[in-house]
Amino acid sequence: MEKASRCFFAKCGGFSVACFAVGAILTWGLHDPVIKKLWTPSFMLFTASFASATLLACCACFMRVQSSTSKWVKLNPLVWLGRNPLAIFLGMVFIEVVLIDNAKFGSTSAYDWVFQHIFVEKFGLSVPYASLVYSCVYLVVWVAVAGALFKKNIFITL
Predict the structure, then answer these.
(1) Can you tell me the distance from the alpha carbon of 133 to that of 137, in angstroms, rounded to the nearest whole number?
(2) pTM for this structure?
(3) Which residues lie across from 105 on neighbouring strands?
(4) Is 126 exposed, middle or buried (0-12, 13-18, 19+ CB in 10 A)?
């Protein structure tokens, strides 16, 4: 494993343990019980430790980089996104500005129209689930764009 990824794992694991410890101290001291509806500090720290431990596990799965010629590197979405972050970010911002501000279907923005007609009505999802599915589809589209740019060796840097 590379030195940079070991350093990341150490930092992420340390953050996770620290958040869990502070949340446990606050909870076990009965000073601040874990209550989701109030978003107490102990709940927030417990959630942050769980999220960072999950992030650590996901990164451990995706970052099995053994060499630069490994087939795994060519199929790794984190490498794709890391090689073209500027292009992906600017593309996302441009599309969001076009969809949200400028493109209109009648009096509705293109974003609202796509969200309402495709994700809510066509798929029959409630608004919270439709929002989640829309976000996941948007993410998958941009990861695919990053993969296509990586495959064609197009790297946009400053």
Answers:
(1) 6
(2) 0.58
(3) 108
(4) exposed
